[in-house]
Amino acid sequence: MKQNLLIVFFMAGMLSGCGSERHSQVSRAAFRSTVDGKATDLYTLRNARGLEMTVTNFGGRVVELWVPDRDGNFADIVLGHDNLGAYVDQTGERFLGATIGRYGNRIAAGRFTLDGKEYTLPLNDGPNSLHGGAKGFDMVVWDVVEVTPQKIVLACLSPDGDQGYPGNLKVTMTYELTDDNSFVITHEAATDRRTVVNLTHHSFFNLHGAGGPPINDHELMIAADFFTPVDSTLIPTGRLMPVEGTPMDFRRPAPIGSRLDADFEQLRHGHGYDHNWVLSRRSTHDLELAATVYEPAAGRYMEVWTTEPGIQFYGGNFFDGSLVGKGGKSYGRRASLALETQHFPDSPNHPGFPSTVLGSGQRYRHVCVYKFSTR
């Protein structure tokens, strides 16, 4: 009887310890500071299966995301830094793991007209405004509303005139790790005056592990029959172009690098992939599958689900190895990818695109889910 009890206690201990190993390799102390008079910190989320994520309220950034491979080995699959200062005083890529707003992607010449009035935005991407301007949501300290073991709720108020945008915009954002190994992002916003809104998330993924080899071997599927072609400054022309017969056709999974050398004007404009795909949706607001990514060596598989009409796929074309991130690893060209669910770039200047106008009394809501498994 005593022996049986010992076995029961041993098994209970083993079960309670399943997935209990902590993975994070960054120090919370390295993120505890103040920026613009507001306190910053680092928060750890963890689900019952061991998926682990660290988040800082500076920019609502995902700092680490630890995901298992087919053998149960965990790796941190998002690019980032191991201290706050590297984000605040960034050189090179500014948007690692960040929340993007008020307007994700580009607005041509930093100008748009709403209700007969022209608004001017800061130019921070050559002749265009990118990802909310010089000080977008990625560079502000968010208020921490709620923290639980698997969820964090952040909020911010973007005042009327912030980066040139009209209206006081109140934003609430939730990050949650669910027990089916999903990372769920919910953006919600309301305004007191008509404005334009296009929020998105900007983690850079490498399913080998952050700082690993290029992602050209990752097999990508995008559920889209069309994309929005761009000019040489990556502003949409306003047309929708079929993917069929082009290197933009990812309706069936294909290695990202398999057609990068094709003689195709759009690849020259983006120095690779940096385009918006028009998702083949069955509804306007339901959560639907937008893309999948498979890394065959370790077997990590990521699904991307969204309520949005578009997805921007960026293949890490502008990294050059000079940016050093967590653990002293350098981030090289095409060693990461971003899949940003969103409305289309430059929508305020294209009446034929799905509208990004939000009016007083309306509610903006955008859900994006990155779901992880193995094959």
UniProtKB/TrEMBL annotation:
Classification via InterPro entries: Aldose_1-epimerase (IPR015443), Aldose_1/G6P_1-epimerase (IPR008183), Gal_mutarotase_sf_dom (IPR011013), Galactose_mutarotase-like (IPR047215), GH-type_carb-bd (IPR014718)
Binding residue positions for beta-D-galactose: N105, R106, D274
GO CC aspect terms: cytoplasm
Residues forming the catalytic site: H202, E340
Signal peptide: none
Catalytic activity: alpha-D-glucose = beta-D-glucose
Top-tier EC class: isomerase
Subcellular location, principal: cytoplasm
EC annotation from Swiss-Prot or TrEMBL: 5.1.3.3
Gene Ontology MF terms: aldose 1-epimerase activity; carbohydrate binding
SUPFAM superfamilies hit by this protein: Galactose mutarotase-like
Keywords: Calcium, Carbohydrate metabolism, Cytoplasm, Isomerase, Phosphoprotein
Pathway(s) of this molecule: Carbohydrate metabolism; hexose metabolism
Biological process according to GO: galactose catabolic process via UDP-galactose, Leloir pathway; glucose metabolic process
Cofactor: Ca(2+)
Localization per Swiss-Prot or TrEMBL: Cytoplasm
NCBIfam families documented for this protein: PRK11055.1
Subunit structure: Monomer.
Sequence similarity: Belongs to the aldose epimerase family.
Protein name: Aldose 1-epimerase
Originating species: Alistipes onderdonkii
Source organism phylogeny: Bacteria, Pseudomonadati, Bacteroidota, Bacteroidia, Bacteroidales
